[in-house]
Design a protein that fits this description.
Length: about 200
């Protein structure tokens, strides 16, 4: 099972240092996802990270960064979205329903299945599937090593994902809530939690 870390949706001062430490601690794949932000900030963040880690980063927009910085690939946030014209390289996608998985997997290196669990950050963000629905999808071969769980994924439910046969876990808020980007500079608790996630996978 793979562990994918998704960035916090906003940029912050200590971010490059934290990401570099996470890579040093074994992070294998980072999804750079900063909705509605200027590409200048993405360029700055990438330029601050050692070049050796660029091949472990996937971008969710500003796809030109893939070639410019030698990144791992691009991510399309819709299951049926088209890749940019002329694009050659690895693609991943986000699916919002079980029905989308079959066709999306054929066109992608791997896919995210959204809203697997209740959201950590949004009280109204409920899981889209029951455990039985996910189990049935796994039985039908829809959930396999190419499908990564996204949404509400935390240390405590990684075991469930393994039972269901997911190929990976996408971690966002379970990690970034361990560090207050406005008031803290010490990010040791975040790194300690990453280590626990890494071991659980």
């Amino acid at each position: 099972m793979k562990l994918i870390i998704m960035t916090s949706p906003t940029y912050f001062v200590e971010e490059d240092k934290i990401l570099e430490t996470l890579f040093e601690e074994g992070m294998e794949m980072l999804h750079l996802n900063k909705p509605d932000s200027s590409p200048v900030y993405a360029e700055r963040l990438l330029s601050l990270l050692p070049e050796e880690y660029h091949k472990k980063i996937v971008v969710h927009d500003n796809y030109y960064l893939k070639n410019e910085y030698g990144l791992a690939g691009i991510h399309l946030d819709e299951a049926d979205a088209e890749a940019p014209q002329g694009y050659k390289g690895k693609i991943s996608r986000t699916c919002r329903s079980l029905e989308e998985l079959k066709s999306a997997k054929k066109q992608s290196k791997y896919v995210f299945l959204r809203d697997v669990f209740d959201s950590i950050s949004d009280a109204n963000g409920k899981a889209s599937f029951s455990y039985d629905q996910l189990k049935e999808a796994a039985h039908r071969g829809l959930i396999d090593k190419h499908v990564y769980a996204l949404g509400g994924v935390r240390l405590e439910n990684i075991k469930v994902l393994k039972e269901l046969g997911f190929g990976g876990a996408v971690i966002c808020n379970d990690l970034w809530t361990r560090f207050d980007i406005h008031n803290e500079q010490d990010y040791r608790n975040l790194i300690i939690h990453f280590t626990k996630l890494y071991k659980a996978i």
